[in-house]
Amino acid sequence: DELNKIAKFENNPEIGLALSGGSDSLALMYLAKKWVKKNNGKLIAFTVDHNLKKDSHKIAIKVQSKAIEEGVLCKILTWKHKRLFSKLMMLARVNRYNLIFQECRKIGIYHLLVAHHLDDNLETYHMRSLRGLNMIGLSCIPAVREIDGLRIIRPLLKFEKKRLIDTCSYFKAEFIQDQNNNDLKFERVKVRKYFKKKKSIFKKRIMEEINKEKNSRADIENRLSIFFIKKLFFFPCGIFRIYRN
Fold first, then answer.
1. Are 76 and 49 a contacting pair, CB within 8 Å?
2. Contact of 159 with 117, CB cutoff 8 Å
3. Prediction pTM value
């Protein structure tokens, strides 16, 4: 079980889930529902009404209804904003996560599942490499990340999108198609189209590069940790001394 490999949980865990209604998050909902039942936990989904289209609230209600039909509690969070003219995808992503993070902390959820998958990771690496980012950026999407006491957990990073679509088909789940995923004015859509023209060996090479960057980052972080342990002396009042030599 991939979730148990990357993260540890308390008894009877309460788990949050970012749910858009697309194939990725819907597949994760079905899998998480089974995992939560097995571990005597609770699952609550959060879907965001981005308030960018006329029918956005109807779509949010549809996603909520789909979750409730499967016995999963789902809360609709609404992004309230003035009319936007640029950076829609970036602003929507940032505010979507802010809304979900705030709600998790409000109701005492400490673990949030997010449905990023292998294709997302490869696309992210490609976009960041074009910008010349360093190893922190090129190690790409982490499986587990902690932000102010909230753990963001991505158990699907080893699985391709096709596998998640197949999971939805297995559960006879109809997922929502986001029209923005076909709009070539967005960088990720262009990269996705570029990847479709490539052979599988291309993806394999990128995955090898990501793993190399991850290993390099882990080595440096380990050496830094050893440095802090050996070279710093901490005082109870919150200051520390570094040994100059």
1. yes
2. yes
3. 0.79
